[in-house]
Structure formats: C-alpha cells, structure tokens
Write a structure and sequence with these properties.
The chain has 152 residues and is mainly alpha-helical. It is 67% helix and 0% strand. The longest helix has 28 residues.
Amino acid sequence: MKKFLNILVLLFCCSSILAFAECKNDCVLKNRSQDQDCKLDNTPLSRCENYAAYVKEDKKLNKEYKELIKVLSKEDVADLRKTQRSWLDWRLEKCEEVDQNANCDNGVCAGVAHDECIVSLLTQRANELNKFRQNVTGARSSRFAFSKKYDY
C-alpha cells in the first residue's frame, strides 16, 4: 500500500511539472474562451507566464502562515484559519471583479488584470502575516484582519 501511495505522489508531481511545461509552451489563456485552453488546472491564473510569479508568492504566503501558526495559541490558530478562508473568498471575488472591469473578455488582455490581482494580493497578505508574527498581540486584537484594499 505504501509503495502504491509513493507511486501516486510521484505521478502527481510529474504530471504537475509536465502540465506547467505544456502550459508554458503553448497556452495563452485558460477558461476565457472555448477555443483556448490551458492544461494547467491547478492554478487560478489565466496567463501561463504569470505562473512562476504565482508560485513564488504563494510559497511566500504559505511560509509566513506556517511561521505565524508556530507562535499562536490553538484559539488564535482557529481565528487565523477562519480569517484566511474569508480572505481566500474575498480574493477570488475581488480578482474576478478586477478582471470584469478590465473589459477584456476573449481579447489579448483577457485574464491579465485577474492574474496581476492574484499575485499582488498574495504578496500583500504574506506581508500582513509577517507583521502579525512580529506583533502577535496586535494581530490577536485585530483577529488577523486583512486589508480589503486593492488599487487597479
């Protein structure tokens, strides 16, 4: 059974790497029109060239999140998780709004505003988590609130 699970993990990792390579080589857009399709389904990004920036900022956010959890009580961790889930929902809605306001459906610029929004908000939230770690008392009193500001 353990051997089977190891093989599954290996296949998943390889397929993710291959999907990125395929996407990087022959894809412009994902889910913006039926005639253009990217095989990289595990990212919220539309334009493949933004995938590297997304991965970098997502790793940074996850690192900050894990570091913050290390210094929190169980109750604080529960509050942080609740706020993080709210942030993820808000980020999705905000970036869809940004994309719609860009008026680029099915055009060359379709998805660009969305992708820039996703990457920017990842950076912003990672910075917030870093500040929370430096001031846990303040973070606790704000209930790990996130900024709802995004200038586009």
